[in-house]
Amino acid sequence: MKKLLCLSLLVVSVGGIALCAAHIVPYVQEEMQSASLYAELAAIHTAGNETDGEGMTTISGLSVLPAQMSESGDDAENGLVDGETPENGEGNSQNESLEETSGPTSPPVIHSGLLALHERNPDCVAWITIEGTPIDYPVMYRPSQKNYYLHRDFNGRHVSAGALFIAEICDPDTSDNVIIYGHHMNSGKMFAALNKYKKQSFYEEHRQIVYETLNGTEIYEVIFAFTTPVYTGHDFQYYAFSRANSPAEFDAYVNACRSRSRYDTGKTAQYGDKLLTLSTCEYSQKNGRMVVVAKKIT
Length: 298
What we know:
Low-confidence stretches: 51-103
Mean pLDDT: 81
CATH topology of the largest domain: Sortase, Chain: A
Number of domains: 3
CATH architecture of the largest domain: Beta Barrel
CATH superfamily of the largest domain: Sortase
Helix content: 25-40%
Distance between the termini: 78 Å
Radius of gyration: 23 Å
């Protein structure tokens, strides 16, 4: 009887281990494949900085100015992109030269690595980076299919982590507010780092977001960070605002975000500003979301 009981326990234990393995092994394999894919995409993105000829980058017949024109790096340090001048109007001679020589058909200053990724998959329309965090990923956009990249990677393969993607209600080029979704992975990948914005000390060290688009590189500054539940029937529908029909509508969204923000950044936005809203899951409440709102500053 004792031997039979031990044998039964052994069979149950082995069965339990086998069941766990059946769930864990595929997950580990998926994680490895995902890590390999995004390492490959990051390499393509980084390689895009390499230029040829006289400071030009050519990809499949597209001639594009390199992402950074200034040898001294002054423009980058001042938060300016090529061709723009500071608010006081005191532009440098290089910017003035570009303005004088660039005609209406001149190509925008686009990161050539992003163009390479866009050619590989036209749904890839941006690349987002928050320095000092794992957030350094391509951003996808397929408005014709709701949540297409929620559980699909860059190549369209079904994976739990999915990809970062722009909400279907947004137009990346013309919306007042571009909403980007991403999973909160236990591994820390995708948008998990957004939850660190709960602490003001983290915000103070990670205020800026670099957002490379097919129209050029944009810099955003975080202005609000808050948590909120969804699917309650009376929740704050931050996910429904992409375009303001009036200054009052824009102000209403900004005020709603500010009233929920976990701390005062001393920053706000006005009608005419372009916003970037990043959203991921937050687990301190049922159906919680962590939301970070940023304003374009250059």
